[in-house]
Amino acid sequence: MKALTPTALRAPFGNYAHGVEIPAGARIVQTSGQLGIRTDDSIPPEAQTQAEICFASITEILRVAGMTPDNVFHIAAYVTDRAHMPGYMAARDAFVGQRQHLPSSTLVIVSGFTRLEFKVEVEVMAAASD
């Protein structure tokens, strides 16, 4: 993967690239939006904990596909309030880590999800060459 962050553009607001080029022949995985719900159906009240659960679920989906978070080239996230941004960003930055190639990223504030308790939803796209 190749990060695309042209110098003619303003630098990204956070730990992401403006675009990502995927090499020809790569396998692509796209996850569904993951919500902050545990396997026992409990939903923590904190946005950061919900985001951590989202990223843990994504990591497991990637594992099943033979990939890791390093294979993620795009993150799309949805939060229900600007107040949840710091918690989401802390979980996101922990997921992204100190990677050599940063993913592209989209973050949208939405009016809500199927259940009022949900504050965060995250989906990713990942690629790997065989």
Provide a descriptive summary of the structure in words.
With 130 residues, this protein is of the alpha+beta class. It has a single domain (2-128), classed as RutC-like (60s Ribosomal Protein L30, Chain: A). It is built from two helices and seven strands, in the order E-E-E-E-H-E-H-E-E. The chain has helices at 47-64, 85-96; strands at 2-4, 19-21, 27-30, 34-35, 72-79, 104-109, 120-128. Strands 3, 4, 5, 6 and 7 form a five-stranded mixed sheet that branches. A two-stranded antiparallel sheet has the order 1-2. Helix 2 (85-96) links the parallel strand 5 (72-79) and strand 6. It starts with a strand and ends with a strand. This is RidA family protein. InterPro entries: RutC-like_sf, YjgF/YER057c/UK114.
Topology:
Elements lengths: L1 E3 L14 E3 L5 E4 L3 E2 L11 H18 L7 E8 L5 H12 L7 E6 L10 E9 L2
Parallel strand pairs: 5-6
Antiparallel strand pairs: 1-2, 3-7, 4-7, 5-7
Helix pairs in contact: 1-2
